[in-house]
Write a structure and sequence with these properties.
The protein has two domains: about 5-90, 3-Layer(aba) Sandwich (D-Maltodextrin-Binding Protein, domain 2), CATH 3.40.190; about 95-165. About 35% of the residues lie in helices and about 30% in strands. The chain is built from six helices and nine strands. A three-stranded antiparallel beta sheet has the order 7-8-9. Strands 1-4 form a two-stranded parallel sheet. Strands 2-3 form a two-stranded antiparallel sheet. Helix 1 (about 5-15) crosses helix 4 (about 70-80). Residues about 1-5 and about 90-95 have low confidence and may be disordered.
Length: about 170
Amino acid sequence: MNARPSRMWGMGALLALAILPQAPSAATLSSFPDIRQVQERGALRVGLVAKDVPPLLVTGSDGQPAGIEVAMANGLARRLQVKLQFVRTAATHDALVVHKTGFIKRRTFEMSLDKVESVDVNQSIPGRLMNYGNLTIQGVGEGTETISTISSPLAFRNAITTRSVGT
């Protein structure tokens, strides 16, 4: 994939939208030119690393990509009401938990997976029925961070704890 850096930043911003706690509607999002372009095309194209990097990206037994990146991309594609296309690239990832919120006032939380001490999931009854909830990550010397209203919180927790134990 031969994308310009500005396109890469745009894709990062689009993926970040998939985990926003109070996500804007698809109609509101279409006021952004990059998102409008994705909606007009009818497909969200997402670049993925060439090799598996659990928990971010794994190849399922069916040959399809799975993992945190795929879950975020699926959530965004659903919000934008478009199809999802994956493109494998040669880039790599560092083992981090990253949570970003806000467009104008930005707040970023990063924690190395080897510093993760515990990951707690809190789901209400509607959250259990609709598969969403809050995730609280406690780090060794890193403090506590809560990610609110995340899709598939149990799978996300399992991906983080499996990765932090396996490293």
